[in-house]
Amino acid sequence: QVHLAESGGGWVQPGGSLRLSCVASGWPISQSAVAWYRQAPEKAREYIGITTDSGRTLDIPASVKGRFTISRDNAKNTVYLQMDSLTPEDTALYYCNLRQAGVIGTKGWHWGQGTQVTVSS
After folding, report:
1. Element at 54 (helix H, strand E)
2. What percentage of the chain has pLDDT greater than the value 90?
């Protein structure tokens, strides 16, 4: 059974940084793409990028490009989201989403419970 656990969220002042972690168990991330999403209250879920099984990072939207960086450590089965220059608009629940290689469609998609990030002064 695949399980994802996000951590690293919390409160930070505008301009600050946080690094979120997504630890996977039950499946190797080396055989997975892993995406990050966020959802603010009363807003739609927003996709904020993906790291492929080959280690490339793709699809960073303009809203976070240049401020957010996705990386992975296959030995630790962990994906990271480094967030810099945070603004109140980044306040949201952040989720990771593991996509098993070789599994067609969303059957191989797995979600964590999320970690809350709050940016305020």
Report:
1. none
2. 83
β-bridge mates for residue 20, sequence order: 81
3-state SS assignment for residue 67 = coil
Measure the CA–CA gap between 89 and 71, rounded to whole angstroms: 22
Which tokens in the block code for residue 117? Answer: 């990030």
pLDDT digits (tens, 9 = 90+) for 55-92: 888 888 999 999 999 999 999 999 999 999 999 999 99
List alpha helices for 1-121, DSSP H.
none
Contact call for residues 119 and 16 (beta carbons, < 8 A): yes
Q: Which conformational region is residue 42 in: left (phi greater than 0), alpha (psi within -120 to 50 degrees), or beta? A: left
Q: Which pLDDT value is given to residue 60?
A: 86
Q: Is 74 helix (H, G, I), strand (E, B) or coil?
A: helix
Neighbours of 40 (CB within 10 A): 14
Gap between the Cα atoms of 37 and 62, Å rounded: 14
Give me the residues paired with residue 118 across strands: 11
Section 31-47 average pLDDT: 95
